[in-house]
Design a protein that fits this description.
- Among the domains are: 59-137, no CATH class; 141-204, Orthogonal Bundle (Arc Repressor Mutant, subunit A); 234-280, no CATH class.
- The strands form 3 sheets. A 3-stranded antiparallel beta sheet has the order 3-5-4. Strands 1-2 form a two-stranded parallel sheet. A two-stranded antiparallel ribbon has the order 6-7.
- The protein is mainly α and 280 residues long.
- The radius of gyration is 27 Å and the shape is extended.
- It has 12 helices and 7 strands.
- Helix 7 crosses helix 8 (162-169) and helix 8 packs across helix 9 (173-185).
């Protein structure tokens, strides 16, 4: 079966990493410190997070109303078709942040958590760069760096080799190549070398580097929120998920957390509530 790897970038968000020598030096120092530790670092205590997850799963509200969703639908970039998929990712991030902070958030008349501007701010901080790159409103730093290097070295009509670009930007050839390839694909550069296995010879392309623009709005205006719409209740919301429905059938036991009924089979297996494993 042939793997369709080229389709993956259209389904995933691209994140750029810091390939600078300074970041590499910081990584090397961290590795050296870990190797020289007399006593290994104690693992972090995750019990609090486990309890939070358990509470969210059993008792938490999972429905979220985003009063500014319509505003975002009009304000985010629509320059590329993939935004039809990525927009759901943005709303999902807002919902996730609201669910985590639901104890301090208001509810609408249907009991849903009302997302605030703070949830959008958190989602934007996480997704803004990735959305800008995938939507084409921002040129990746690796691409912009090599394009500027070629223009500085070769001018408008000259050409320059990959090795010279790498030397100019003070990176190795593999780093330079990762920027040169996309630069050619976008039309910012032209590779004059068409023979396989030969070093690339680059010159300025027909397309100019555009100014970076945000793909997501920087902030929400005061009138961005709209009135709540009727909630569409599913069986999962009204009756609970399949696991909870299974646990609440029968009259044999009582959940030690919520007081609901536990199925006889689960009680016999040692379960004491709807989510925890058998009692020790």
């Amino acid at each position: 079966m042939q793997r369709e790897l080229p389709r993956e970038p259209a389904r995933l968000l691209s994140l750029s990493i810091d390939e600078s020598p300074e970041q590499t030096r910081a990584v090397l120092r961290k590795i050296a410190r870990r190797r020289n530790q007399l006593v290994p670092e104690a693992p972090p205590d995750l019990s609090g997070w486990h309890k939070l997850f358990h509470w969210l799963k059993v008792h938490g509200e999972h429905r979220v109303y985003i009063p500014y969703a319509d505003h975002l639908a009009e304000d985010v970039t629509a320059a590329v078709v993939r935004m039809r998929r990525d927009f759901s990712t943005l709303l999902g991030m807002i919902e996730s942040h609201a669910v985590l902070h639901q104890a301090t958030r208001q509810r609408d008349e249907h009991g849903r958590i009302v997302a605030t501007a703070a949830h959008y701010d958190a989602a934007r901080d996480l997704l803004a760069d990735a959305f800008a790159v995938t939507s084409g409103t921002q040129v990746p730093a690796s691409v912009r760096t090599v394009v500027n290097a070629v223009v500085a070295l070769a001018g408008a009509d000259g050409e320059v080799l990959t090795a010279r670009v790498a030397e100019y930007i003070k990176r190795d050839r593999s780093v330079a190549a990762r920027g040169l390839g996309p630069a050619v694909a976008r039309g910012y550069l032209v590779n004059l070398e068409d023979r396989k296995g030969r070093p690339g010879r680059y010159r300025a392309g027909p397309e100019s580097l555009p100014d970076d623009k945000p793909a997501l709005p920087g902030s929400l205006p005061d009138d961005a929120c709209t009135a709540a719409q009727p909630a569409h209740l599913s069986s999962q919301v009204s009756e609970g998920c399949a696991a909870v429905q299974l646990c609440t059938r029968g009259d044999a036991g009582t959940c030690t957390i919520c007081g609901g009924r536990l199925d006889t089979v689960l009680v016999a297996a040692g379960f004491t509530d709807h989510c925890e494993g058998p009692a020790a």
